[in-house]
Specification:
This protein is an alpha/beta fold and 312 residues long. A 6-stranded mixed beta sheet has the order 3-7-6-9-5-12. Strands 2-1-13 form a 3-stranded antiparallel beta sheet. Strands 4-8 form a two-stranded antiparallel ribbon.
């Protein structure tokens, strides 16, 4: 048996456990991965990481009462934890909250926020992004579904309802965000916080991104290394796109930054291995595009360390 690991930080999540989580019901894997059961410390207002809760599994081998999930070691921060002012979701013309739309999840898009992160108070950085999207741009809510800071904490982005599972409503459809113009419905946006044009993400952020991609790809039974036919449920327009894409795959933009974009092929392959999916053949050296910012570290995962390492 092999364990899911990222870099030198072993999570202890076996492939069998990954497959079990991936097969969980509506929102089940996200609930198990991000610990969407409030901890006792959180309920008491103490012991959480930057206003969030330690990871607690929801019915998947967890310790009742809020012990952290040692298998993953990810910290999840709900909207209340990072201080979302829910009044900002009000349509100023009507005085009512903007209507919320949902659609079946089809693809995942990776972003960077392109602004520095306040490592001393990353929740303040999330609030700044929220303010920029709502107050400055006039959007209904923060554009991304999930955000990840330099320490690897995962933040709930766009509100999907009153339940504790981010991204989804009760029937399993994903809330429509605002992160890829014209192609948002059914497109789940995950943003690493920071400017990743030349600086790669921290190992902690890369680890959490891989686990988030694993959770989302497993939830929707996506082929992490494959292509998807994205169908806009509003316009009916079709688009061939990687199931796990970078923002620039959709349109002319530098997002998610050269350094992060160079990691995506390796992340896709690692998530596929963790889900037990067959891998496509590696391209021959003559067809591999140059990667000057993040040179390949292994023949399996260019620009990223493998998620799957043999158990000792």
């Amino acid at each position: 048996m092999a364990d899911l690991s990222i870099g030198s930080n072993r999570s202890g999540l076996s492939r069998r456990a990954a497959l079990r989580l991936a097969g969980a019901g509506t929102g089940g894997m996200l609930a198990a991965t991000f610990g969407l059961v409030p901890t006792r410390a959180e309920a008491a207002g103490a012991g959480a990481v930057v206003g969030g809760a330690a990871v607690v599994p929801s019915g998947v081998g967890g310790v009742p009462g809020g012990a952290p999930l040692p298998l993953l070691g990810v910290h999840y921060v709900p909207r209340a934890g990072w201080g979302a002012d829910e009044s900002w979701r009000i349509n100023r013309r009507t005085g009512q909250p903007w209507p919320v739309e949902f659609a079946p999840g089809q693809v995942i898009t990776v972003h960077h926020t392109a602004i520095p992160v306040n490592d001393a108070d990353p929740a303040a950085s999330v609030r700044a992004i929220y303010r920029g999207h709502t107050k400055d741009r006039g959007w209904a809510d923060i554009g991304y579904h999930l955000l990840i800071d330099n320490a690897g904490a995962v933040y709930e982005g766009r509100r999907s309802g009153a339940d504790t599972v981010p991204v989804y409503e009760a029937d399993g459809r994903a809330v429509t965000g605002a992160h890829v113009q014209g192609n948002n419905a059914g497109n789940i946006g995950v943003a690493l916080m920071g400017d990743l044009r030349t600086r790669p993400p921290t190992p902690q952020a890369r680890r959490s991104l891989a686990l988030v991609l694993l959770a989302l790809a497993g939830r929707h039974q996506l082929d992490p290394t494959g292509m998807a036919t994205y169908i806009n449920p509003t316009s009916g327009a079709r688009r061939q796109i990687p199931t796990i894409s970078g923002h620039r795959d959709w349109m002319g933009t530098a997002c998610p930054g050269d350094a992060l974009f160079a990691l995506l092929p390796g992340l896709r392959r690692d998530v596929a291995v963790a889900l037990g999916r067959p891998l496509p053949p590696l391209p021959s050296p003559s067809t591999v595009p140059p990667q000057p910012l993040v040179p390949p570290r292994s023949p399996v995962a260019p620009g990223a360390q493998s998620l799957l390492a043999a158990a000792p």
